[in-house]
Amino acid sequence: MKRLLVILSFTTPLFAQMPMHHHHSDPIADFLMRQASGTATNPQAAPMHMFMTQERDWMVMLHGSAFLNQVWQSGPRGGDKLFSTNWLMASADRKLGDGHLFFRTMLSLEPATITNKSYPELFQTGETAFGEPLRDAQHPHDFFMELAAEYAMPIAEDAIGYVYLAPMGDPSLGPVAFSHRASAQELPQAPLSHHLQDSTHIAANVITVGAKLGMFGAAVSGFHGREPDENRWDIESGSIDSWAIRVTADPTPNITAQLSTGHLHDPEALHPGDVQRTTASIAYSTATSSSSLIFGRNEDNNSLTAETLWRFAKVNWVTGRAEIVDKDELTDEETVHRIKALTIGYTRDIWSNAILTAAAGGNFTLYGFPSALDGTYGSSPRSVYLYVRIRNAS
Hints:
Blueprint: H1 2-5, H2 12-15, H3 27-34, E1 35-37, E2 40-41, E3 51-55, E4 58-73, E5 81-96, E6 99-107, H4 110-113, E7 119-129, E8 132-138, E9 144-156, E10 159-169, H5 194-197, E11 203-213, E12 216-224, E13 242-252, E14 255-264, E15 275-285, E16 289-298, E17 301-312, E18 316-327, E19 337-352, E20 356-368, H6 374-377, E21 382-392
Antiparallel strand pairs: 1-2, 3-4, 4-5, 4-21, 5-6, 6-9, 7-8, 9-10, 10-11, 11-12, 12-13, 13-14, 14-15, 15-16, 16-17, 17-18, 18-19, 19-20, 20-21
């Protein structure tokens, strides 16, 4: 229990003397600060829970989030568990020549706060634990979620070019990863569509080259396509054998959209073979709400995720996630089953100071699935989460 609870306080000394500041006058600095995972961005209007301070020539930014969760799941494949999902990001930005040099690291203690290499999640699949494929369970994030350097500079009027280099990072494939997506910030569990939409947010040896001209952007990446192994504490390695390309549009500060495709070389350890992934998404944010609609496809398997988050009276958060996703790893027969899931949740901020905000909340999930799985999952399995959450003050 002590090991699980430590995650609730690990951010305090780091943030204790960081002033709040949310505005840049430099468009390149604004562009870099919007990046939430790799070079993927939330809408410009999305609130940012972060602290910044100027240290000589460097603008230093810190932010993070941690949930302590208790989950109960019904049905023959359901499980119960106490665990923590969490991440911490630190970045530093300075002017260099005509542009900006940007360093970022993203860390997670989930390898320590999620025991037995997974937490229960009905109908979830992807990656392995103890040499076996994960079914009805979600793997922890790696300790090193991102280690990256980026240089961005003006290349023409109203145009920015950039190069992103990451021993561990996120290539130009998919939307912002769920951990950092504005519409998912009050949902501690991974979406069932994760491995069809944004699972490459932790990839080895990423090189991305891109440009943004006005509201439009484009980027291309090379990276190592294999999913992370079960050693969640190391830095993955491997040759650059996969590619991705993404185009984006930001027609207003409230909207961002992307279309991307990527060729993943042999991504799964237990299922040899290449995968072509294609995704499309649109996100909308205001000061009090965020919503996303995301499509993802791996070969013949499709997924659709809709998320929304609404904040009212400053301390109340209502959230929802609806998914339709094809799963072919739920049984040994590898038959494709179309799964539906609906999650509704509520979080209330219960304490805050200038540095941190703490909250308590919960959510529940209902499922729809083919009758052929009744014998495996029962007639009406459910998931219930209760949690406490701590992150930067708003």
